[in-house]
Amino acid sequence: MPPFGPVKRKDLIRNLKRLASKAPFPGENNQFVVKGEISIRIPNPHQRDIGKELQARILSQAGISREDWEKL
C-alpha cells in the first residue's frame, strides 16, 4: 500500500475487506463492512479520493493502526 494518504474508494473497500473479512453490505445511506461486532461505514462514491483525515477516522473506528494499513 502506498504511504498513508488519499485513497480511492475501491482501494479503501478492498483493503478493509482484507482486514475486516466481511464484504461491503448495503445500508440505509451508506455501504458498510463488518469487523467482529463493529460496523464501519464506507463513504458514498464521489469524484475525488478519500482524504487522509476521513481515512484516519474510518481506520480508527475499525481499530486498524496506520502501520497495519501500510503493510497491506
Any chance you could write out the topology, listing elements then pairs?
Blueprint: H1 9-20, E1 31-35, E2 38-42, H2 52-62, H3 66-71
Antiparallel strand pairs: 1-2
Structural write-up:
It is a single chain. The chain has 72 residues and is α+β, with helices and mostly antiparallel strands. 40% of the residues lie in helices and 14% in strands. The chain has a two-stranded antiparallel ribbon. Strand 1 and strand 2 form a beta hairpin. The N and C termini lie close together (5 Å). The mean pLDDT is 84.
Give a short summary of the structure.
The chain is of the alpha+beta class.
Q: What is the percent of helical residues?
A: 40-55%
Estimated radius of gyration: 11 Å
Name the average pLDDT: 84
| Overall morphology | globular
Beta strand % = 5-15%
| Largest sheet properties | 2 strands, antiparallel
Low-confidence stretches: none
User: What topology, given as strand order, has the largest sheet?
Assistant: 1-2
Question: How many beta-strand elements?
Answer: 2
Number of helical runs? 3
Q: What structural class do helix, strand and pairing data support? A: alpha+beta
Key descriptive features of the protein:
72 residues, alpha+beta, 3 helices, 2 strands, 40% helix, globular
